[in-house]
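Our platform keeps sequence and structure together, in a single record for each protein. Such a record has a labelled line for the sequence and another for the backbone structure tokens. Nothing more is needed to write down the fold, since each code stands for a local backbone conformation. For reference, a complete record is included directly beneath this paragraph:
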Amino acid sequence: MKLGDIANGAAAGNGKPLDGVRVLALEQMQSLPYATQLLARLGADVVKVEHPKGGDSGRAALPAMTDPEGRRVGATFLRNNLTKRSICVDLKSSEGRQVVLDLAPKFDVVAENFKAGTLDRLGLGWDDISAVAPRAVYLSVSGFGSTGSPYDRWPAYAPIAEAMSGIYEFKRQGDDPPLVAPMGGLGDIGSGLFAVIGVLAALRHRDATGQGQKVDIAMLDALVAITDIVPNFWSMGLRNGDLGPLIMHGFRASDGWFIIQVGRENHFAKLVEAIGHPEWADAPRFAERQGWIDHLDTVLRPAIEEWASTRTKVEACDDLAALGVAAGPCFSDEEVVHDEHVAARNMLVEMPRTDDVEQPVLVPGNPVKLSAVAEGPEARVPWLGEHTDEVLAAELGYDEAQIAELRESGAIA
């Protein structure tokens, strides 16, 4: 799907569920930018506040492309900022702080993802914003939340929260070092999704009561929720990554790997039938589920991989699915990009590059599919400070002289 395209065009006249909702985002990197991009995809107007020197730190990520002014625009920024406007304000200057306080009453949501306490020290925390915009929802996303954590002085990126959730140690094998960031920005996107849920709930509450409130999202909280098996299994006696008697392993086909999950006796019977050994369903060594694991590498794996050796990984999964056995191929990056499901569900958005590279930047599409809402059109990411003059003139009525004075002082750019 290309920028500007519309999917489910029959619903284009219905508008979007968040039309009219306005978000002022003091954000950087991925956790909050992902959340506000999703809000924008659902119809919200998102104005992104960036520092005049360099902007969102995600712009400095690698790999990168260059914008029309020759400035680097990193991958982290490119995949989290579609359909937003950018203004440059120096939050550390008194004039810049006042610009944000003047803008806040014009918006339904004021959102930030600085380290806990940073905006309080700058005079832009929850108390400061609610004093001038009592109806505003204040969203804060940080590594460890705004209150109560002994780690609140620590900076945090996604892998930090992921490690502290226990999942790295849960999945680590033997003396191997932990596998860091095995799922991209799991900590960022997970906390971003909870942030969106919190904002929608707070807006609903605001509409009913007239009162704004603070939504406090900690990345570590989000990861403890997402990696739920770590504390839950510990409490039920499974420790050190033990998943219990469950086949949830990878097997080799003729062209690569695929995964099988079997956790019930009827599914085990279907699996062994598929691979040509239906008698194993009643064999004493497989009478208990633990027998599946005890004989996995000596009996089951050789048989499964012999059966799969004449099939591609997709064919193996298709044959298992026909019998009701859950299996999925391990796709490479190129296979994901060209997958028929991904295309059919509009799960990749193409953004043309501005630096003479033919391959467009690919950004994951919106996974929230609504039957009465059209997907798109989406706009490219904003160039740094592209909308500063436009927003200050439209929202605050600043004339050219006022804007020029703020720019001269360094408060905006």
Summary: The mean pLDDT is 96. The two ends are 33 Å apart (CA to CA).
